[in-house]
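Bug report (template v2)

What were you trying to do?
Predict the complex of my protein with adenosine-5'-diphosphate.

What happened?
Run completed; filing so the output is reviewed.

Input:
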Amino acid sequence: MAHVTEIFGSMTFNDEVMKQRLSKEVYKRLKHCTQNLQPIGVDIADSVANAMKNWAVEKGATHFTHWFQPMTGITAEKHDSFISPIANGKVIMEFSGKELVRGEPDASSFPSGGLRATFEARGYTAWDPTSYAFIKDDTLCIPTAFCSYSGEALDKKTPLLRSMEALDNQALRILKLFGTTNVNRVTTTVGPEQEYFLIDKKTYLQRPDLVACGRTLFGARPPKGQELDDHYFGSLKGRVSEFMKELDQELWKLGVYAKTKHNEVAPAQHELAPIFTSTNIATDHNQITMELMQKIANKHNMACLLHEKPFAGINGSGKHNNWSLSTDTGINLLEPGDTPHENAQFLLFLVAVIKAVDEHQDLLRISVANAGNDHRLGANEAPPAIISIFLGEELEAILKAIDNGDEYVGKERIHMEIGASVLPKFPKDTTDRNRTSPFAFTGNKFEFRMVGSTFSISGPNVILNTIVAESLSQFADELEKADDFNATLSDIIKQEIAEHKRIIFNGNNYADEWVAEAKARGLLNLRTTVDALPYYVKDENIDLFTKHGVLSRPEMLARYEIMLEEYAKTIRIEALTFIDMVKKGIVPSTISYEAEIAKVMRLKFKADISEKLEHRLLTKLSQLLDTLYDKLEVLEGSLLQEDSDNSLENAKFYREVVFSQMNELRAVVDELETLVADKYWEYPTYAEILYSVI
Ligand code: ADP
Ligand code: MG
């Protein structure tokens, strides 16, 4: 096997390759454009395209594609070959700057939330040179943004790039105020930890609900679930280990910093964590990771489940979004420093995040809202639907001291004078890290733990970047006009702590008391997607996004529509799949078993049989089957109703009516599953699925 350092990035058109293959002049100009987010001229584009094509063809590529991230949350690609006909029936391989920079996919089938009228069905894709092109399946993939013809964002990359720029602008204003002049850019960095399940492919294909919906719609609890905690960090099974090895290799080739892999809490559950990088690249890489996980699992005769809650009663999967801010000089702005000056700056950035999270709880909640994650948030495994921040004992005590104007009494006694005192050193990774917190400070970054495993991390990071940009812009406005910088700084920090300390909670987020206390503190508790989504289009939220140039009003309204539609469609597909499985699998299974029992009864008994087990069982099955059919018809009836024109009403209907009816139906199916003999039961059980990989 080739050395990791040799294969790493070998399928990417990375900086080293660019240096080798571009003229000095072109390389310099391209670098300048990418670093300063400027458009790339036609002449440079032509040279880059040609070099890219030569490199890709040498690596065996025959096609190119503009790789983009429409609102479906997965990536899209349309492949064009490099061939170009020449005389005598031959072809040459060609790729122009124009083709590199801009593509025009017919995009009428991607969700647009009404932004793109059908008469202008075409969208266009524009190269994002800040993320390296790469080769996948013999195709040169060019990371691109996807917009409508009139320039509205139709994807997840465009607002992310805009939000990174917004944060960059505001953070630079602050750094300048602190006298920093050598920083040109502030970038947000992210390391997303990805959870997933691996099950046997044959078992997977026997469950139409897993295939169509990504989750099981029924299934009685297995005798052994995750009670023994014997899977967490356990040794890897051979097949899983082979899968992970290949996944690492393939990810490394594509320049993805896959770092940590281990078994998770639930049986068949695993995690992969990369080393953090710029948010835009981390987002692209996480999409690639999810795609490769599924492909490589398939190769190993397994299925990779990315759904937030594939199995009821068993831990679901999330994606911890580790987020921080870093300067192009390599300074992490959320890292406490060694001097009073650095500490004052750290405290200001820290307070900016605290303020942002408190003031925009609704947006953060929405950024992790979908039908799948509704099964997780608020259940006993994931953070609740209430947003709060964990700071750790020491930092919380420091903020408290500032708030009260007291001395901080830690290992040393300090009077916390902002800009004059040095923060005590607190360990980066304290052992009392609170695993129940939805938003935890972990030494030099924040870990947002509510993100669902299927999500593109673009959404949550667009929100984080934008709301923190807003805090920073308010601080900068005040500080820029201050006569006494230190005094104003100190006032801001004190005042913001006083105003937003309610969002800080170091206790157990899973406890019932927290729900009551959070309510008393006035924190939002938006339990479901349909509870949360209407907040998205509140005027103040639209103003916020507009102010920072991240999303326009029409873009937000469109996204709102898309989210509501996606929610309703997801539940509808689940309900239809469930009905189908009940009719074609569960009812026939039960009837076959009943027939078997009836046959035995005829053979065995002549006289009174009412006390016999066979009779009792048959009666029970028969009763359950009746109930099952009643509930099935109710659900079918609901699905026959015409959808409302109002997307919110429609989503509410699916949540309040259809989803509840599915749960009722499920309860009956689960009971039947415990009674019907295995050989008659049509579908693999939880135990069979969860322990299918041996
Ligand atoms: P855990 O104990 O949750 O696994 P780790 O310290 O191992 O935490 O880090 C988890 C993730 O956080 C990794 O993906 C790591 O690269 C990422 N991370 C570390 N520092 C930063 C940072 N400054 N910005 C963003 N992500 C970071
Ligand atoms: Mg983590």
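What did the reviewer find?
Residues 189-191, 193, 273-276, 320, 322-324, 332, 444-445 surround adenosine-5'-diphosphate (ligand 1) (CB under 6 Å). The first strand starts at residue 63 and ends at 67.
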